[in-house]
Amino acid sequence: MMYLHxxxxxxxxxxxxxxxxxxxxxxxxxxxxxxLNRAQRxxxxxxxxxxxxxxxxxxxxxxGVTVYLSQISPATLLRRAKAGEAVDNP
Length: 90
Description:
By secondary structure, the chain is α+β, with helices and mostly antiparallel strands. It is built from three helices and six strands; from the N terminus they run βββααβββα. A four-stranded mixed beta sheet has the order 3-5-6-4. Strands 1-2 form a two-stranded antiparallel sheet. The protein starts with a strand and ends with a helix.
């Protein structure tokens, strides 16, 4: 089982990650903004950023979909996920 560090003291299992998105680019879409607004209203957004968030990570967890806001760039998060995958599957 692999984990992805999202920032601060927050890690998620990589097999729960549905997507990693750039907050600036993805939030241009009205559908994405509505998705994020709905998740916020339903209490499914977890801000793990002490700074301005750069990415959001959508995870399918036992209690439902959770959106994590992270100050780490999407490219770095994806690189971390792939590096962990390479370590797990030599």
